Hints:
Blueprint: H1 6-23, H2 32-86, H3 91-160
Helix pairs in contact: 1-2, 2-3
Amino acid sequence: MSDPTPQERADYLVRRLEQFIRDGRTVRGVSFRDWQAMARAEFENAFTEVEQRKREIRQDVKLRRLLLVASSTLVTIGFWGGVMALDHDRGWIAALIMLASGTILLGVASDFSIRRLWGRRVVEQRRARFERIESFDRQLRQLETEIHLKLKRAEAKARAG
Length: 161
């Protein structure tokens, strides 16, 4: 079974929100805050699921690449180690080939570790950006409230004066 398409995911979310509204229906209807909280939770779950699936796929590809390089490197080292053991005249060629294979394996293994550390850094930067956006949003709401209060005071002064 394949993963749902983006359209199927969107349809599912819409149906879930519709069901929430129908279940919470009262004379006045569902409060906007309740609907907003439900929508936020559903979208968060959907995004988390997609990100988790993408992360698993990336990790699987990285691990397969590391295993492929490690196995081919070990086979190469084993073969040329046998050649070196049998033919002492050409041992330096085998030694260079084994050194190159080991270097390639070390490079791929270090790339695996570096990418993992880099990924953590990217996640931290993304989290910091979202926190900054939230901070700006809070400041904007506060400024809107202050402007609204000043406008009401000015209107009251204009009516009184």
